[in-house]
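Late entry, evening session. Most of the bench is empty. Finally got around to the prediction I had been postponing all week. Sequence below, unchanged from the version circulated by S.P.
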Amino acid sequence: MGISLHGIGVVGGIAIGHAHLMSHEEIDVAHYEIPADQVPAEQVRFDKAIRATRKELEMLWGSIPENAPAELGSFLSLHIMILNDNTLSREPRVLIEEQRCNAEWALKQQLDMLLAQFDEIEEEYLRERRADVMQVTERIFKALAGQPGSNGLLVPVAKNSILVAHELSPADMVLFKDHQFAAFVTDVGGATSHTAIVARSLDMPAVLALHHAHELIQEGELLIVDGIQGVVIVDPDDKILAEYKKRQTSWIQERKRLKGLKGKVPTTKDGVAVELLSNIELPSDLDQVRANGATGVGLFRSEFLFLGRDEMPCEDEQFEAYRAVAEEMGTLPTTIRTLDLGADKIPKWQKDDASINPALGLCGIRLCLAEPQMFRTQLRALLRASHYGNLQLLVPMLISITELSQTLMHIELAKQSLTDEGIPFNRNIRVGAMVETPAAVVMISSFLKYVDFISIGTNDLIQYTLAIDRGDDAVAHLYEPVHPAVLHLIHQTIKAADRVGVPVSVCGEMAGDHHLTRLLLGLGLRKFSMHPAHLLDVKQKVLNTDLIEIQQHINRMLKAEDSDKMRYLLDQLNAM
């Protein structure tokens, strides 16, 4: 009798194959006291384990095949950076000396401390970096035990097997080059985990967060992985298997057809041009930007350059990172968001003043204005990079004209300092404002007098409008993109920008959801920015939409008073 497991589908598609279980061994950590005269030797043993782990990661990094996703190199580099951080490579040595304990116990104490810090983080992407720390630490434990490089993927597997694992690291992904997996499923992970990001790069069906899949599924069992619905069916009967084979054939044909849309200009059936841009989190995402036919970067999150390190990056380091992106994109627009730190994104070098509600605390532009030297350093780096490409600046979390005026003043001061030093930059660089709160929507007419473009961050706009913590499972079901209040705020913003001829885009998750494409088009949106993997689905929806035909239906949706009615009307809209 087959069973169905439900998780998070992070990559669409359907795969059918036999399970291959990746070994997952819990490492038991003993605790014992060592004589004082053996402390130096224990520290040397720990240092050797660090060196062995570093060598292992560097060898994996060097063995990445040319056709592998660019993300793999970035993720392995991140693991090397985590390993080199003093928190893991030096602090346990101190504990060995202070407590006269074995290296494993010192490392475990340090890991427990780090994991406790991650558990307090609310922002999903950063919280899931917890897995990277655990994966690196597990390698150190194995090196201490004399078994570096232990990995269940080394066992030969049959073609089109489905990998079943408790967890996968980016380093594990390197070994995919030697196998032909059709899909993979894991017990843990989330939509923004590195596993999910790599899965999107590989364009391989994947379902994460299944909790107990590794325990329930046996080696060799037949599996169906439905990445569209986030379902894994174990040992399906003949009827279900036949149905999913039909779905799989249809899906493959559809993806092949979508690839043919890459070179098509996104224009509605009645001739209205639409711009499709991509969001990136890593410079290596640029490969996907071009591969899917995006015409620029609508959002580059600069804060990830600042996280996971002991000191703030200097101006030159920031400049080199921004310049690399600018040069790669050439004349295509590249929008870089200024620092969106604070709240739950606290770098090590910043003092963490506890807040009762960090999402409403010193974050985004508020933090930058409170730390003018840090802000000025980034602005100078961004302006210098603007000389090498078509860069735009985007300012997050603005709620008042006072904040906007102060931001523009800092930009002018940074420009003047570069002018005084004879450093070239784009003097006419475009500056935009993010709309992420109801306050920003209320103030939109005033903002539009001072900025060159507007970008609606729907993730936070929904959260702040509905007073919903989307990371809280107890209220996550109330996080509703088609809530009438949310749609009215988006519509109001677009109309206000259109009246004065200021470009407006949506860069939140709503932009990449093709089920919402027609709705956003009907509300007046003409510029979408999304994860590159979603671009062709959205483009197809644009090409098949007649704006004149749907406008009356959009008007009915704007009159709807509850989300249930809105969802019913949305289904009708997509069926047109």
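Two things to note before I forget:
Residues 468 and 474 are 10 Å apart (CA to CA).
Confidence is low (pLDDT under 50) at residues 150-156, 342-349.
Will write this up properly tomorrow.
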